[in-house]
Specification:
The protein is built from one helix and seven strands. The protein is of the alpha+beta class.
Length: about 120
């Protein structure tokens, strides 16, 4: 048996809501594992970062270097198999996880722009 798409979406939404309420968060976050492109330094090229979670407010990513709070970054999220939406974000927090890995929390600041094939 397979769950219908609607049933799966409802279950995930309810589980996410419950987790957010337990953690005392303003908006619940969804754990995700994968990589996404990001432009983390001014005038730099996109690089892949590890995505840990996502919410309506922002993302949790890991990176090899610290990023200062307040820095503007671009993060690319898939909009379709052939299209990436680039989201302008501001780093809300950054904390060291290991000697060479940082947990970075970019927060969304405006509407996405779509880039075909990116």
């Amino acid at each position: 048996m397979l769950l219908t798409q609607d049933r799966l979406e409802r279950a995930v939404a309810l589980l996410t809501q419950r987790a957010g309420e337990r953690e005392g968060r303003r908006v619940p976050r969804v754990p995700v594992r994968g990589t996404v492109p990001a432009v983390l330094e001014p005038d730099s090229r996109p690089e892949l970062v590890t995505l840990r979670d996502i919410s309506r407010r922002g993302l949790g990513i890991t990176h090899r270097g610290a990023l200062p709070e307040g820095r503007q970054v671009l993060v690319g999220l898939p909009a379709s198999p052939a299209r990436t939406e680039w989201l302008r974000c501001v780093v809300g927090h950054c904390a060291r996880l290991t000697p060479d890995t940082f947990l970075v929390g970019p927060e969304f600041v405006d509407e996405p722009s779509a880039v075909a094939g990116a």
